[in-house]
Design goal:
CATH class: Mainly Beta
CATH topology: OB fold (Dihydrolipoamide Acetyltransferase, E2P)
Number of strands: 6
Largest sheet: 5 strands, mixed, barrel
CATH architecture: Beta Barrel
Order of helices and strands: HEHHEEEEE
Protein name: DUF3299 domain-containing protein
Distance between the termini: 64 Å
Number of domains: 1
Pfam family, one: DUF3299
Number of helices: 3
Strand order of the largest sheet: 2-3-4-6-5
Keywords: Signal
Length: 181
Amino acid sequence: MKVSSGLAKCLITAGVLLSTLLPSLSYAVDEVRALDWNDLMPAGFSDEALFADYDVSSFDDGDPEGQRRYEEFQEILQSAPVIESLDGQLISLPGFALPLEGDYEATSLFLLVPYFGACIHVPPPPSNQIVLVRADPGVKIETLFAPVKVSGRIRIESTDTGIAHAGYTMDLTNIETIEDF
């Protein structure tokens, strides 16, 4: 097959252009995206609206109707909608770490939550406001009282940890203690 010199120059120029653009495009795809907790909720979703129809203080342990309403409320919290387009993205997110596995020296699994005391008090936040973080190898969580910023690849993966239901998981690449957020 015979190629004209003009077409050959065009193909070479296109190849050079692609070879210079592709690395920068892949860098942009792997760039860490800073998020806040509102970015984990679909537009129009309000965690406050979830509580509007429920008076948690009225959920009495001995009352079958109170127990039914509490279970209904828990199901709503556990199935809060997530942002599907976040799946697989590298993100950073501030929050509070609640260790699940490990010890003071190395924590390999923890929940990241939007405020101190979340998941310890009843009810926990909606599942789209809880991230299960896997840290391999384990990391040291300096204190439960100070906020941290975590970075890693987020996944849409619903997980019941026994303490709370997480709507997202993350494979941790970095954690740092921050002043506040």
